[in-house]
């Protein structure tokens, strides 16, 4: 872009693009609140997270200039997300592995078992 | 023959001596900021793991807890942060275009958004404390104890018609328990606002009324709900932990935005040298706007985290 050439550093994002991004984010907020009014069962979490991920992508790519930025900055950020995904993923596989051992609504039953072990 | 002097042209005053070009200096600073943002992702990431593990094991706890959060206030706060992110991004564009007036207006709007978020969050938190939704062991009921861990609160919250109902009850135990007899909105007492000066009680009543209008329609205090899942307090622990850490980041953003706003204004020469040390030595312009750009990146990541916190706590 000519603006970019003139000023040397950084990409200048026009206000119109930023305003459209902000509008899109607000629309997606309305959509996620609206979608939460319906019960899709276990899919609730994934619907909410998907909409949030789209919003986050808009913020990162357009507000934070990552679309026009040096790719290495994107590599740094995506790497942090990837390691977070590994962190959450392994924690969840571990958690679900032990889930059958958890008594739902547990407190009384746990206390009974503890009493049985050590009266 | 005269020697051309590129060095004086190529070394503006903001260029540190260890950089070759302004672009190199700018890109290095930006990379540093992105590395910091990666650590921020991982800082909050630990808490997101906490959320995921607890929700994975006890989804009913989160379904139960989220109905005590005010979705409308949460949605308003989401919009406030998105709009302040927009004004921040626009501020960067204005700095790049050398428009100082617009830059200062947009930074002021961003700062106003940050403060609005904190004020709304303060109202949310104080309402939670008012109702007794504290972090900690508040909702923990030891098995077989038969009593609620509620009596360490000296002033249980009873309001509206429930108060009148409770005072008629002979037993102090009943009076101490929070039970709204019915969920009719008409039973909530209208706010009493003194025309000459506003008393604290009037303010409280007004606030209760506003909250009652769009608050959850859950008429029973969680401690009185027979269907309350065990360890429901963990929802509030995680809620206060994650939104609290986010709130600290918003507060840091307020400091940063104030600093940028002062930097965007022209600094008087008569100010002592020490203030010029803490403040910026130079005003922003098309050639040098690094603090605005990097501060903007920080502000966007704060918005980004709230984009995830809002649905995870308020909606699902």
Write the layout of secondary structure elements.
The complex is a heterodimer of chains A (119) and B (316).
Chain A: H1 2-7, H2 15-35, H3 43-63, H4 71-98, H5 107-117
Helix pairs in contact in A: 2-3
Chain B: H1 6-10, H2 22-57, H3 59-66, H4 71-96, H5 100-131, H6 161-168, H7 172-176, H8 200-214, H9 233-264, H10 273-278, H11 290-315
Helix pairs in contact in B: 2-3, 2-9, 2-11, 3-9, 4-5, 4-11, 5-9, 9-11
SSE-based structural type of chain A: mainly alpha
* Proportion of residues in extended strands of chain A: under 5%
Helix content of chain A: over 70%
Largest sheet of chain B: none
Kindly provide the radius of gyration of chain A, computed on alpha-carbon positions and rounded to a whole number of angstroms: 23 Å
Overview of the molecule:
The complex is a heterodimer of chains A (about 120) and B (about 325). By secondary structure, chain A is mainly alpha-helical. The longest helix of chain A is centred in the C-terminal third of the chain and has 28 residues, at about 70-100. Chain A has two domains: about 1-70; about 70-120. Chain A has helices spanning about 1-5, 15-35, 45-65, 70-100, 105-115. Chain A has five helices and no strands. With about 325 residues, chain B is mostly helical. Chain B has a domain at about 35-145 and about 220-315: Four Helix Bundle (Hemerythrin (Met), subunit A) (Up-down Bundle), CATH 1.20.120.80. Chain B is elongated and about 70 Å long. Mean pLDDT of chain B is about 75; it is low at about 145-195. Chain B is about 65% helix and about 0% strand. Classes of the chains: A mainly alpha (about 120), B mainly alpha (about 325). The interface between A and B is large, with 60 and 62 residues.
What does this entry show, briefly?
Chain A is mostly helical and 119 residues long. Chain A contains five helices and no strands.
